[in-house]
Every structure is written in C-alpha cells, then in structure tokens.
C-alpha cells in the first residue's frame, strides 16, 4: 500500500488506477476542518468588515479542494513524481497556485481572523505577509523545489514527496495573501500594489521556465531516465514544462491582474458618497 | 554521471580517456565476428559494416518497458544535437534479444521513433547469444510466457558497448548515462586516437 504519490522508480508507467489513501485523508481532513469551523464554532459576532459565510465562498472552497485533490492524487500525482516534468509543472500550478488561491477566496474573513487569533500564529502571519516576504517565499520555494539535487534525490520517497507537496501548498497560500488577503491587520496593499506584486511574479518564474525551454539536454536525471510515457522524449517533455510554467502561470496571474484592474477602475469610478469597499482596510479583491 | 543545469554539447578537446563518463575497460574488447540480419532483410557483417566507425552496440528488445527506449531515446536526442561531422562518424546498432517478436519490420518501426539512422539487427537466438558472449555481456534470458500469452519480458544487459575507430571497445556505458554525458563523450570517442595509434 502506498499512501502518497512518489516516483515508482524503475517501474514502467501504467494507466491502471492505484489508491493513495494519504491523499484522500489529507483532502478529507481539510474539508472536514472547514465544515467543522462553519458548523461547530460558536456563531461569531461579526465585526464591521465581516460577513456570514456566503454560497460563493462555499463553492470556491469546494473547487479549491477538488483542484488540490486532482493535483495530488493518481494520475497527476504519480506522473508528476516520477515520469513527466510537464505534469509536475501542471501539478505545481494546481497545488501551488490555483488551489490555494481558490481556498483563500473561499475562506470568510471571520474564519481567517479566528485562524490567526493566537498570539504566536498572529505574529507569524504578520511576519509572513509583510511586503516582499511572500514574493521571496513563493519564488524561493519554486526554485528550491526545482533544483536538480532536490528533484533527483527525493522523488522515490513518499515522505519527502509529501513534505515537498505541503511546502508548495503552504507557499501558495503565502504567495496569494498580498493579492487576495482580506484582513486589514495583515499588511493590506492598494489595488495598484497588488497588481504590481502579481506582475513581478509573472516575470520571476520566467528564469526557471527558460532553463526548461532552452536547455539542450534534460535537466533532471529522474525524468530523463524514467520509462517513457506516450513516446514523448525527455527534452520535448521539458520544453512543454517550460512553456506551461510560462504561459499557464502567466495566464493565471494576468487573469487575476485583469480582474483586479477592473475592480480598481470600478472602485475609482464610483461617485463619492457611495459605499465602496476599499482594499487597504476593506473588502479588496475577491470580496 | 554528471548533472547540473548547464550542458556542454561540444565536449572538451583537452579531456583524457579517463575523463569519459563511461566505464573504461581494463582489456579492450574486439568486435564480434558475426553476421546478423538488418531491418531491410539483408545480411549485416557487423565487423565489416562498422569498420572504422565509432559504434555503439546495445542488446535489447522492442517491448522493453524501460531501459531500451531510454537508451535509444537518449542516443537519438544527443546525435541530433552533435556537429554533423561528428555524428556521421557514429553508428548506433541495436541487436534484438527477442527475435521471436522483433521481426525486422518491428525493429525498424521501433527504431524510427528514435532515429532513422539507427541500425537494427536480428538473427537466430544462438548467433545473438554468441555475439553477447563475445562482448562479455550476460546473455539475455526470456522469461517464460504464460500459455498463449506473448506478453513476456526479456532480461538483458543494460550496457551500451562503445567501439572506437580501432574496432575495439575501450569503454562501456551503463543505464543511467545521461544525455549530457553522451554529448561530452561521443565527440571525444570520435576524436580519440585509439584508432590511429
């Protein structure tokens, strides 16, 4: 029984389904924790900037969990762990960008506030959400988890793959906070600064993506020496990974920036006197 | 085997044989005196047809799920990146260890996935086994197929034997040899003076 998707070293890829109960437990645990928070926590006395949990938030958290599950479980999880770098990149987009973003948008403000209620947790959250820290964390994790020495040496270990996956997911939440975070006590930024922050993150991952796209030979022994899947060569797979990282990640961030820009525009265009949420202390992107 | 982000395609002119990424043999191996059948159905005198070329010989089978396609894919990819003057001095020869299933047409179609320049050979099991023995390779072992089932595996050596222009093999390459290793070594094997000493 394998609990978490890791490289099946030396074993040819098979489309036969395999169970990874660790992934199910992880997703189930997150879902149950969210449901418990909504159903079991004493009804909060909502502060002025808080709203009851909304249906869109429930949909977003559900979608986030689904994306997370798709990214971690068979087949994406196993293909990513040991066969195709392009699928690893897809997995990174799913669990490191899309899922955390959806889940952050799906967590109501009152719950976020409860999650950082403890003094230590609050201090850690404040430190991690300082401007530039999320930029450094997200890109540091992106680079560290793509170093050949890391990829080639931990892929066969379920435990290490689990640890790396959790680090990527956590980095995803930290990454999105400056853009989607909705607590005024945790370094909120203006719309312009949020757009600039996301713009920086469009260009920084271009560096590793360029290595993938333009390297003449495969960077990772793991994917180069893995039994071939669907006849795609290791170099072609690597180029697809580079393009995916650049275009997939870029499209995601540009899409978010566009939404943010139009919200900003709408916010600025509102006549004075109309109650419009403002990013620094108010509603911000994603409501 | 070396790794890293940067890859050097040309190799270094100053590298010594001991810098090769493969395993240097204490005693070089002679090319086997063997005639097999090429994928166009004609006899292939191995020694004569590869005389003076750097010749990379690998024994495998087309249904192989892992080692064979990876070796062939890596060699095909690297040869496409080399200076054509170097690449044209190199012959890659694939000898099937599963002649029952690997007909000349099957071998040709399979090799064409990697490179149309690769030479595919088949023959009777005894001749193929003799060729392996002459190269000190463990002879291939066909696992017993279930009745009426052709889905069997073939255990075989994972080494690529590299002959230089002197028609001797001084170095062999195990599974795990990376493309950048080949890219460093092949130009050196072509330039190497073993064949001119």
Mean pLDDT of chain A: 90
The total count of strands of chain B amounts to 10
Mean pLDDT of chain B: 89
Structural class of chain A: mainly alpha
Could you say which structural class the secondary elements and strand pairing of chain B correspond to?
alpha+beta
Q: Greatest contact pair?
A: A-B, 21 and 23 residues
The number of domains of chain A: 1
The major β-sheet of chain B equals: 8 strands, mixed
Radius of gyration of chain B: 16 Å
Name the poorly predicted regions of chain A.
273-287
Would you kindly provide a brief summary of this structure?
The complex is a heterodimer of chains A (about 290) and B (about 200). Chain A has about 290 residues and is mainly alpha-helical. Chain A is about 65% helix and about 0% strand.
Helices and strands in order, then pairings?
The complex is a heterodimer of chains A (287) and B (197).
Chain A: H1 21-40, H2 55-72, H3 76-82, H4 85-105, H5 109-115, H6 119-128, H7 133-144, H8 148-154, H9 158-180, H10 191-203, H11 206-214, H12 221-224, H13 234-269
Helix pairs in contact in A: 1-2, 2-4, 3-4, 4-9, 4-13, 7-9, 10-13, 11-13
Chain B: E1 23-30, E2 35-38, E3 43-45, H1 46-49, E4 54-60, H2 67-81, H3 84-87, E5 90-96, H4 104-112, E6 119-122, H5 125-134, E7 141-142, E8 154-155, E9 160-163, E10 168-173, H6 179-191
Parallel strand pairs in B: 4-5, 5-6
Antiparallel strand pairs in B: 1-10, 2-3, 2-6, 4-9, 7-8, 9-10
Helix pairs in contact in B: 2-6
């Amino acid at each position: 029984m394998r609990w978490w998707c890791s490289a099946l070293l030396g074993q040819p890829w098979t489309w036969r389904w395999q169970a990874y109960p660790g992934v199910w437990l992880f997703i189930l645990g997150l879902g149950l924790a969210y449901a418990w928070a909504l159903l079991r926590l004493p009804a909060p006395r909502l502060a002025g900037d808080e709203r009851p949990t909304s249906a869109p938030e429930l949909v977003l958290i559900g979608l986030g969990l689904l994306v997370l599950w798709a990214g971690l479980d068979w087949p994406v999880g196993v293909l990513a762990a040991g066969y195709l770098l392009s699928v690893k990149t897809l997995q990174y987009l799913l669990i490191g960008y899309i899922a955390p973003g959806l889940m952050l948008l799906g967590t109501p403000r009152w719950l976020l506030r409860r999650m950082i209620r403890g003094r230590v947790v609050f201090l850690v959250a404040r430190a991690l959400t300082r401007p530039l820290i999320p930029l450094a964390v997200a890109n540091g994790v992106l680079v560290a988890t793509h170093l050949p020495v890391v990829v080639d040496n931990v892929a066969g270990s379920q435990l290490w793959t689990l640890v790396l996956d959790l680090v990527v997911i956590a980095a995803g939440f930290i990454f999105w906070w400056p853009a989607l975070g909705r607590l005024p006590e945790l370094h909120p930024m203006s719309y312009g600064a949020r757009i600039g922050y996301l713009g920086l993150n469009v260009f920084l991952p271009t560096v590793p993506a360029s290595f993938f796209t333009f390297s003449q030979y495969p960077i990772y022994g793991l994917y180069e020496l893995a039994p071939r899947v669907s006849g795609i060569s290791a170099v072609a797979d690597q180029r697809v990974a580079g393009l995916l990282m650049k275009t997939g990640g870029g499209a995601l961030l540009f899409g978010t920036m566009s939404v943010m820009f139009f919200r900003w525009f709408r916010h600025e265009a509102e006549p004075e006197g109309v109650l419009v949420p403002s990013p620094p202390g108010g509603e911000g992107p994603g409501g | 085997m070396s790794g890293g982000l940067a890859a050097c395609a040309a190799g270094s002119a100053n590298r010594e044989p001991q810098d090769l990424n493969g395993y240097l043999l204490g005693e070089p191996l002679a090319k086997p005196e063997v005639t097999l059948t090429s994928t166009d159905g004609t006899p292939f005198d191995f020694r004569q047809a590869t005389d003076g070329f750097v010749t990379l010989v690998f024994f495998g089978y087309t249904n192989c799920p892992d080692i064979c396609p990876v070796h062939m894919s890596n060699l095909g990819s690297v040869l496409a990146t080399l200076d054509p003057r170097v690449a044209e001095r190199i012959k890659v020869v694939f000898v099937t260890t599963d002649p029952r299933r690997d007909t000349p047409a099957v071998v040709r179609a399979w090799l064409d996935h990697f490179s149309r320049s690769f030479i595919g050979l088949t023959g009777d099991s005894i001749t193929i086994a003799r060729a392996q023995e002459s190269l000190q390779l463990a002879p291939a072992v066909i696992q017993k197929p279930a009745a009426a089932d052709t889905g069997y595996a073939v255990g075989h050596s994972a080494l690529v034997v590299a002959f230089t222009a002197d028609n001797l093999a001084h170095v062999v390459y195990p599974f795990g040899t990376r493309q950048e290793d080949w890219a460093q070594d092949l130009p050196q094997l072509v330039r190497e003076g073993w064949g001119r000493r």
